[in-house]
Specification:
single chain; alpha/beta; Rossmann fold; 2 domains; 6-stranded parallel β-sheet; 33% helix
Length: 392
């Protein structure tokens, strides 16, 4: 990919900048501005290069309709305060916009187009729509890795009509993921959780040949516990997964990758209950497995101690109840302790995992924290992302 850092003369160039500013909103207020803070480096870079910046982004799923609750206005206002710089939101029909209509005031440097998903052509990857958008700028920069698994007009087709470049955050994200997929420093460990093992089977199969340890926790571990002949009571379990679990064990053996699952667990009778530690053979019919137990925590911490690289996606338990948050917290603390002396490279991804990290520490205590969601997971599966392919 060509990097925007390598472009020789950006002065006064009109840059179409695709960002992911899909932040959570509640009654028009931003409840988490992590994604806005992550794009500040590319904005600062383009400001210093004296460019004219046209920001393209989206919020929510308006499905091609104008819905005021999905306006980018609150994001514009938030970014204005962070940059201490006036930003203009253009609500006009984008089809009626022309390049010469923009930046008539020479003091203007940043404008926002209104939510690009207000146009059904965006998600249809419409070629005419992409060509029209491209006509508003001199070059295109994708700094929205988290949207790059989408074949959308402002991510994919637009690159056919303009010189196109990777942004700073997109490059950072890909470089971080390369360190856990191709440029690996071993031993390498993956801690993977979530509720459905079928949604993560692609990742597990792709990583098994490359990783030394794969640790399965969370509700998806219940399928493995059950596969090994133990009762799991009324715990969450995905049906029809025995063949998937069997394949995971066979593949891990083939590639000499250690597969670790809980040896003991914390149970309750319901999600609001207090926790009780149990061995796997002692689980009752009315028990609900909601976290990993102390023996399992110690085993995972020992694996982290000897690892040089770690990927973590998915909490170890039902962390919303603090009685069942201990497993996730201890994993996070173990990684942070290794990070302090730079003896591990850590990549964390997934909304719930980030929520756990934020509850006990600053995300800066990890080498890279990805907010990319679907793109993060598809990259780990080894899939080709349309937005990245378009830049190559």
């Amino acid at each position: 990919m060509n990097s925007i850092k390598d472009y020789k003369n950006l002065n006064q160039k009109k840059v179409l900048l695709r960002l992911d500013l899909n932040v959570p909103l509640k009654q028009g207020l931003i409840t988490d501005d992590t994604r806005i803070r992550k794009i500040l480096p590319i904005i600062d870079f383009l400001i210093k290069k004296q460019t004219k910046i046209i920001i393209i982004s989206h919020v929510g799923r308006p499905n091609g309709k104008i819905i005021n609750d999905f306006s980018l206005k609150p994001i514009c206002e938030n970014l204005e305060k962070k940059l201490n710089k006036k930003i203009y939101l253009i609500s006009n029909d984008v089809f009626k916009l022309k390049k010469d209509d923009l930046f008539k005031d020479p003091n203007n440097q940043i404008i926002f187009l209104e939510n690009i998903r207000f146009y059904e052509e965006e998600e249809k990857n419409d070629i005419a729509f992409a060509k029209h958008l491209a006509g508003l700028g001199d070059l295109y920069v994708n700094d929205a890795f988290s949207c790059s698994h989408r074949s959308h007009a402002s991510i994919n087709k637009i690159t056919e009509f303009l010189p196109s470049f990777a942004g700073l955050q997109l490059e950072t994200e890909i470089n971080a993921l390369k360190k856990v997929t191709t440029d690996i420093k071993k031993p390498i460990t993956c801690i993977i959780g979530g509720s459905k093992i079928s949604t993560k089977i692609g990742i597990i199969k792709n990583l098994l040949p490359k990783f030394d340890n794969i640790i399965i926790v969370g509700a998806m571990a219940n399928n493995i516990i059950n596969f090994k002949g133990y009762q799991i009571g009324k715990s969450i379990k995905e049906e029809n997964c025995r063949e998937i679990v069997k394949e995971i064990f066979e593949t891990s053996k083939k590639y000499s990758c250690k597969l670790i699952f809980p040896e003991d667990v914390l149970v309750g009778k319901n999600f609001n209950d207090k926790s009780q530690t149990k061995e796997l053979y002692d689980i009752k019919d009315d028990d609900l497995i909601l976290d990993i137990g102390p023996k399992t925590i110690n085993k995972i911490k020992n694996i982290i101690k000897i690892s040089k690289t770690i990927l973590w996606n998915g909490p170890a338990g039902y962390f919303e109840n603090l009685n069942f948050a201990g497993g996730s917290y201890e994993i996070a603390k173990a990684i942070i302790n290794k990070n302090k002396n730079n003896s591990i490279y850590s990549v964390v991804g997934g909304g719930d995992t980030i929520a756990v990290v934020k509850q006990i520490s600053d995300i800066k205590n990890f080498d890279f924290v990805s907010t990319a969601g679907g793109a993060f997971l598809e990259y780990l599966e080894g899939k080709e992302l349309p937005g990245i392919k378009a830049l190559n």
